[in-house]
Amino acid sequence: MNGSEPRPNDATLVTIAAATVADAAVAALRAAADERDLAQEVRGIDSLPEREIQPVLATGFEAAGLHPLREVRFPQRAGEPVRSVGTRCDFVLRTIDAPLDLGDDVDEEDDEPDEGPGLFAELDPEPVAPPIAMDPESAFWLEVKTGAACRDLGDAGDLTTLPKRTTIDLARLAHASGVRHAAVLVVAFGPDEATLAHDAHALDRHAAEQGLPTLGAIVRTFPLTDRHGNAAGLVALIPVGRA
């Protein structure tokens, strides 16, 4: 069986549309921005560091039925004996709530010792069969990168370094074994929607010029209350093929 054919025990054979991911991210960010406006908070979502943007995105992915997992080790590192070892991906999105088949014995270990049947074993409910694991190639692997033109205390990241940071993640995804559907999600904030959209397409072209198999950026913009120079938000999803 070659790499393009699904495994017989796949929990799902349907991948997630890139546009669905982009739309879920935009909806989550707009809702978070509106909530801060309603509360009249001093700092907007454009001040949030990447680690605080990610929970906002997770809420949106969950609401869209994408069953997000966070900080998942790439398949080629899944068998490492220590949980903290291995390169991790920000999100893995799934069409159903099924575990990923990463071949990781550590994650499947039972923390409690088997004590054998109890005195009333005959009254115990029938054991439930474990869910069928999903092939990692059927999931959608997503890295997140953030940046803002006007930064509050430098928390949101620098737009000038965004091309390099994005290209590094695209290359990692393109070369990751066991990953078939992947993208980098760029969340950025700037002075206006037109400028952000232009820069997103330029970022996609830059990655392609570096020899990466990008598949065309999906760009979404939205207005933002201007607290300190950022009047617009951007979500740019850049899918990448296999290198």
**End-to-end distance, in Å?**
20 Å
Please estimate the helix content. 25-40%
E-strand count: 6
Please give the largest β-sheet: 6 strands, mixed
Instruction: Give the strand order of the largest sheet, numbering strands 1, 2, ... along the chain.
Output: 1-2-3-4-6-5
**Helix-and-strand structural type:** alpha+beta
Continuous helix count: 4
Q: What tags apply to this protein structure?
A:
243 residues, alpha+beta, 6-stranded mixed beta sheet, 4 helices, 6 strands, 27% helix
Describe the protein's architecture and organization.
By secondary structure, the protein is α+β, with helices and mostly antiparallel strands. The protein has one domain. It has four helices and six strands, in the order ααβββαβαββ. Strands 1-2-3-4-6-5 form a six-stranded mixed beta sheet, sandwiched between helices. α1 crosses α2. The longest helix is centred in the N-terminal third of the chain and has 21 residues. It is globular and about 60 Å long.
What is the compact description of this entry?
With 243 residues, this protein is of the alpha+beta class. The protein contains four helices and six strands; from the N terminus they run ααβββαβαββ.
Give the topology.
Elements: H1 18-38, H2 50-63, E1 69-73, E2 88-93, E3 140-148, H3 162-175, E4 181-190, H4 193-209, E5 218-223, E6 232-240
Parallel strand pairs: 3-4
Antiparallel strand pairs: 1-2, 2-3, 4-6, 5-6
